[in-house]
Design the sequence.
């Protein structure tokens, strides 16, 4: 379980290191040598027709832009600075924005540039391990340009709807397309969060059953993963809020309604996230309390048994001494008493009963009737 | 107790899952197959007359809208997409709003649409278990349209007042009706919160009486339920605040006074909620402290008794050794002393008194007179 | 001590329940059957003269309003809906405001109504137990109307000053009168808070002297009472802030200076309150730390003593075995050695010294010289 | 150390009580009978000349005001209401402001009055104990009027610079003088805070060396003192911010630059304060962790030793029983075996080795090789 | 490890003390006697040419200012008040700003002065120990003036790019130069933070492996260093935000885009910082939980073993008593029974089994099957 986690963190750390080294000129395009080579796919459509085509050179894009009201250029893989550079030229992208596309460790953000909006966000996968992939989106007046780190995304159902002319996409502009992409990403956070809810649920049941054998590493893992998710989602909320409130030229009023809905979804995700974070903190505290409770119970048991037997053992040790009663009448005359043994047993019984009474009054025998006057919590 | 809770959480989880799956087109109406079929009930009224009627088809609503200044259409059950769709058409409801009606897992919110306001909030029931039901309300210039998940609500006293022409409802517009509904819902939170207050009260009494036998699962449960309630109420506060402050065309100034009062009630609920949350945290901390205190008390007792008897037991063991005093004068000559046994007993008495003195000076005997110079907390 | 507290909470709870039941029509006047019947007292004054009169019927108020620039109507007791209703009619009070007067569980607040300001706040008494009474104040252009739950208030010195024509009240309008009332209430919070300061002071001294016998229930009580006070004062601060900043027609600029001073006092009260809250949290933490420290000290003592004697007791037990040395030369030949007993004593001395050396190196004997290399906190 | 603290708190408490009693008329001047009698000192200056004079009657001030562009009247001691009243008349000071001067328990604040600004702040002394003295400052267009509780302040170097005509004071207006006073006060906070930094430093070193003998009362003291300082500085920050941002007629733009610098210093003080507060919390937590760590270490040691010797002691006790082997072959025949004693020793060796192996596998012997599968934290 | 830290703190403390003493005249230039003497280096450039020259006297700067659009004067070392004073005169720097340059303990800040912007920030070095150096930057319309505490900075790659005419610096104004400097500093925070991430990573792995031998001093160190870094970065964020948002005459719109990017980097640094701070808190809590868990496990083991053997030891002690069976039939007749020894062994077996059964039911043997009804956490 925790091995899985360590893999994730190492991956995160590795990705952090793909950054441009400090001291490099701003706007330098330095691609990660391990990144896959870009695959460019164009979907251009109007209400009447839809063209879908994989292209080799950025220069092939130009014709689409002129002919269709909306052109979606999706680039999977960031391994070729030259291709990115050409794309940047075609769409007049600022070098800083291009640099942010390549250095896939950005916070989610919305940046206004003349001619287009630049949006960065992250898609997460609720598979066996959390995988986060940066998605950079440029929204222009007649195009949407997206960059993904790798092939494979969660947009296939949406593409199918576009092909089938289902829903509003084909009748709407690039802003609605951008919204649909955002919405698909945001909705993918829900199953992930639900899985956390279920894990916390199970952990709670386990803790109630047996607090001391439940693995607290799991709660700690969940806390850390939620912390990471939070870092991804909070800035996205701010970005989206700007998109909804500010008058952005590329976004129409009708799409704004949809973006408001998307913002609403993010608010719900954040709600869930914060609730689960609090729940996991509560759970850890709860487990600690339960364990502390158990320690007390165990201690009490030990004290009662030890405290009863320690004096008894002393007594039996006493009469096990080898002082010679024959030498002097002072030397353990009890050993020669007629009722010596019963006397010793009786002595022990008296000690035991006295101690039991004391413990009972202290309430240490598990039962309730505790005299409160002598306890400090009063 | 905690089983009850688990039921609640599972229900919540189940309801979360009724969501549209990620990847679906926005605005898709996918009803929950287990949801009850809609029952539509119309109450239309003016100051002079009131008509109350259960209808089968949404199309039957139109005549009411023309004839009466206020028409309240209440739909219980969300199990038929077709009916909802028709209602949406009649009242010009945006598909996204309809989707929010069906996906009953929304945060409380107020959304402005042209022609009407859309308000989502939750009614809770203070019965044996917390039950939360989403209520979606559309407020137009001459209608109020409400959707509830199931039949059965807390509006019956209000309906009775409408029929009897008691209060201001009959003389007022749909905004006042909407306020009355909101107010009924909000006031239903109070008994629920009071029950938490009482449970916390009882728990505190119990903890003071006997901290180690009080069940901390209960405090944990209360904390979690309050966390859930909080998630429901905070967004409602924001929504209502918007309704009170912003110039909303469907709300008159006189009703705004009433909404301000309702907002005030929510503020009180939040006050109580936060107070109880803090109280339950304090209580948990208090119980832990008390238990920790008890551990200390028990430890001290164990230490005193063990530490006194351990040396004594050593001494009696010493004189229980079987070295043969006859072999050599060095071998335990005490055993043959005339006052050997009294000497041993005296030795033990001296050790006991020395230790008791030491403990007394340390303040470990429960009494106060502790010499502070040798203790670290100084 | 805690019994007192419980009384308070039960009272609070009882008062909460005096609320209008959920489902009642808004603005319904349902008086508490146990509430005392209203006593109405009028003080009307100008710079020249002052009239003070107890009246039976609300209708007797009218003449005063016309003749004097300022009329103060004080109502003690809220047990008669009819009287309140008549007063409401005379001063054009909104039904919702009247409802808030009767349901004495409001948050402090300021509400603007046409013709008057409505102010709710609470007076607390620093007697043996905290008593909180709601005070509702209506400030019009020529009257101040106050409602108190019971007879008896902290305004007597102020009334005396009015009669003696001391201070500015007689020369000023109703806004200055309202300020004076507020100021008297607010200043009554100080002695109460000071008593908390002193209790915390005493508790701290006690904890330093003897952490394990100090009653942590007291700290817990203080925390809860401060939490309650906080709920009363924070909203009052907001209300007063509004009164100071916003242009309220009934408040003149010169009175505004005084209200600013009153706001300043509230800020100081909040300061003290938050400081005491933090202090009490710190104190609880401090006590827990001290107790935890003591546990450690006790544990170390137990360990040292037990660990030294356990091997010794083993050795003496060993030579107390009854193997027959006569049967075989292998059976405990030591018992027959000439220096058998001194040998055994020497063995024990060696073990004791070795263990003492070990503990000394570990730093468990209380003295400092601890070799750090083998301890984990390094 | 803590006795010192208690003195401070009692002083604080005593000063709190010097307040006007609740119910007094606002603006009442009630001087503290123990306060020293006022000493009035006037420094009037222009760029050309400087006059410094101790005066007996407030009426002697008038000539200075007319002749010099800047007159600084400093009053040490607040023990004579009459003198204060006369000063109030001369400078047109509002009764509420005068009351705040006398009741030396104000929060730092800036209040605008027609004709002057009223500023309250506190000077602290980093001597053997924290001493806080309220300083009230009135800034007019040609005067600065300051009130201090007692003689003795930190302004002497500044006065010397004025006399020597060093720096900008002589060339500037009263606003620059007020700034210089503020700056001197604010800069006096730095050494105080540094002393806390050093104390925390030393405590940390001590805790690392020996957590269980470090006195946690000291950390607690520091926390409380920082809390008190914080209460003094935060409101001062707000007051100064207002002075810097708002267009105050008595403050020129060039002086505003200096006030901005002073504000900057306060921000640094707050920075340090909050950092030290967090550090002291961390330190307490760190000490508790270390102690908890030590408890664990001690427990483990005790367990290992006790658990090994307990079975051994049982075995030696077993063969110390006095059953008569002569009565029956079943009665402890081992005692008569030829290798009885070696057998018993061997049995003990086996038990010891088995337990050591068990502990080693559990990782309780201090060494690392712990088999993880059987531990719950996995 | 912590010794390193102590060095850092002492250095910090020493630097704090280099401040002007309280009471000094504002704007006094008092240089630190240990500070290195200033070395002034001028780089003046236009798009066509670049001149790089070390100068001896501030007066040599003037010619550059007239001839080149951008002149960068870098001063390493603050040890000569005269030189600084002359520089201040040349660039019309306010005395307060000069004072801030020398007193290298400022918070990061941006201050507007007529004619230039004054920016203070800190460069940190991720070497073996955190070293922080204050960098003061004046941005005028045709110059950038920087002050560093010591020679040696992270700007060399940037200078090289300037010389090679790589990037935009040579074509841009002084604002772009200032941006480049800021960017270099900010980017140097990343490797430092990453090293913390790795240390936390390693610590977590260690804690999971063996919580009780992991050194919590390390986590404490990291927390404190992050706290210090935070104090440096948060104010820088505010300063940069002002630079990006406010219309500053020296900053062009195109450079503003770059500054926005730099601001974005700071936001990421803060994100990482806060995440690591939370992670380290979680880690400490996690370690404490794990240790507490271990204590419980150890306690249970001790209890089980001790509790089983204590009664057995009592029994064997009992039959080790030396009561003389020959004196009376009541004196330990068991010793003479034919099956006396087997009876005693059987008695012990019965006791052992009974206790094991009890422990098994309590769930203290490590296995799960615990009867819940008798445990308090239910």
Sequence:
């Amino acid at each position: 379980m925790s091995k899985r986690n360590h893999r994730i963190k190492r991956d995160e750390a590795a990705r952090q290191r793909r950054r441009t080294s400090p001291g490099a000129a701003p706007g330098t395009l330095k691609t990660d040598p391990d990144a896959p080579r870009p695959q460019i796919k164009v979907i251009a459509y109007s209400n009447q027709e839809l063209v879908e085509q994989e292209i080799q050179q950025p220069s092939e894009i130009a014709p689409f832009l002129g002919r269709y009201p909306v052109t979606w250029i999706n680039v999977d893989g960031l391994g070729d600075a030259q291709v990115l550079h050409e794309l940047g030229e075609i769409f007049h992208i600022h070098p800083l924005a291009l640099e942010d596309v390549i250095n896939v460790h950005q916070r989610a953000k919305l940046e206004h540039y003349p001619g287009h909006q630049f949006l960065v966000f992250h898609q997460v996968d609720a598979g066996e391990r959390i995988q986060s992939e940066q998605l950079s989106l440029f929204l222009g007046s007649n195009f949407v340009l997206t960059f993904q780190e790798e092939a494979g995304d969660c947009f296939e159902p949406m593409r199918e709807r576009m092909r089938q002319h289902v829903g509003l996409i084909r009748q709407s502009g690039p802003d609605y397309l951008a919204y649909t992409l955002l919405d698909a990403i945001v909705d993918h956070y829900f199953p992930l969060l639900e899985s956390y809810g279920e894990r916390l649920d199970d952990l709670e049941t386990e803790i109630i059953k047996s607090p001391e054998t439940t693995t607290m590493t799991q709660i700690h893992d969940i806390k850390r993963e939620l912390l990471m998710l939070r870092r991804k989602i909070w800035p996205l909320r701010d970005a989206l809020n700007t998109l909804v409130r500010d008058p952005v030229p590329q976004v129409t009023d009708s799409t704004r309604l949809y973006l408001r809905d998307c913002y609403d979804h993010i608010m719900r995700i954040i709600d869930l996230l914060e609730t689960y974070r609090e729940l996991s903190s509560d759970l850890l505290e709860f487990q600690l309390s339960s364990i502390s409770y158990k320690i007390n119970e165990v201690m009490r048991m030990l004290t009662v048994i030890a405290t009863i037997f320690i004096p008894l053992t002393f007594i039996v040790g006493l009469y096990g001494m080898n002082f010679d009663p024959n030498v002097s009448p002072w030397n353990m005359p009890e050993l020669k008493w007629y009722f010596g043994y019963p006397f010793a047993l009786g002595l022990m019984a008296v000690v035991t009963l006295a101690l039991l009474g004391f413990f009972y009054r202290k309430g240490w025998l598990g039962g309730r009737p505790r005299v409160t006057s002598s306890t400090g919590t009063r």
About this structure: The longest helix of chain A spans residues 253-318.
